[in-house]
Specification:
Order of helices and strands: HEHEEEEHHEHEHEH
Radius of gyration: 16 Å
Number of strands: 8
Largest sheet: 5 strands, parallel
Number of helices: 7
Helix content: 25-40%
Number of domains: 2
CATH class of the largest domain: Alpha Beta
Strand content: 15-25%
Structural class: alpha/beta
CATH topology of the largest domain: Rossmann fold
Distance between the termini: 31 Å
């Protein structure tokens, strides 16, 4: 299956999440930036509040796209220690990059929410959304951080991801909905006809629209 764009993926995921419609304490969390576009369609279809859950990848030296870990908005850090050891990455680099991503999380949180309070998670049925999963490290950090806030139920929903990553993430969530799990996974963007960059302005607009519904 190929998705036209993130909105199309969101509508298809919303249909797969129809069993949550009518849930009283439902909260949809999107991982920005791209995950918010998918999540906005789901929140609209399920008549649920929408919020961001900010997680930042900790990239390898000279190859920032290669995730050696991730940090979540509450400070939870997940590190791929075997990969860090294999690449011989100094502990000082990991520390500095983690701190840099924490500051970026703070900046984005203020920019995206403005004066709005963060949506409470405790006791809610939480659906965490991203536009796809590759290694799964950023989503893993998010799931572990959310779990610490005692949701009543934690569901992960993504359009696409490799089978191994989805299996690992299934250990952390109560339920995982993934529309496509191709064995020969290349990259998330390869499964979208349009996979352009999502801007901060678009994230803010989608959150504002959701808050007014």
């Amino acid at each position: 299956m190929y998705f036209e764009d993130r909105r199309h993926a969101g509508r298809l995921l919303a249909a797969a999440l129809g069993f949550l419609r009518g849930e009283q304490q439902l909260l949809v969390l999107g991982i920005p930036r791209g995950g918010i576009v998918v999540a906005a369609e789901i929140a609209k279809a399920l008549h649920a509040p929408l919020d961001v859950y900010i997680v930042r990848k900790i990239g390898a030296p000279y190859n920032p796209e290669m995730a050696i870990g991730a940090v979540a908005s509450d400070g939870t850090v997940v590190l791929d220690q075997p990969l860090i050891a294999h690449l011989n990455i100094p502990a000082e680099y990991v520390h500095q990059e983690t701190e840099r991503q924490r500051k970026e999380i703070e900046r984005r949180s203020k920019a995206y929410r403005g004066t709005r309070e963060e949506q409470p998670i405790t006791g809610k049925a939480v659906v965490l959304i991203d536009d796809g999963v590759a290694t799964g490290s950023t989503v893993l950090a998010a799931l572990r951080a959310i779990r610490q806030k005692s949701p009543a139920r934690l569901v992960l929903a993504v359009p696409v991801g490799p089978p191994e990553s989805i299996r690992e993430l299934s250990k952390e969530a109560d339920q995982v909905i993934c529309l496509e799990t191709p064995e020969s996974f290349w990259a998330v963007g390869a499964y979208y006809a349009v996979f352009d960059q999502t801007s901060d302005a678009e994230v803010i607009m989608l959150l504002d629209e959701s808050a007014q519904q």
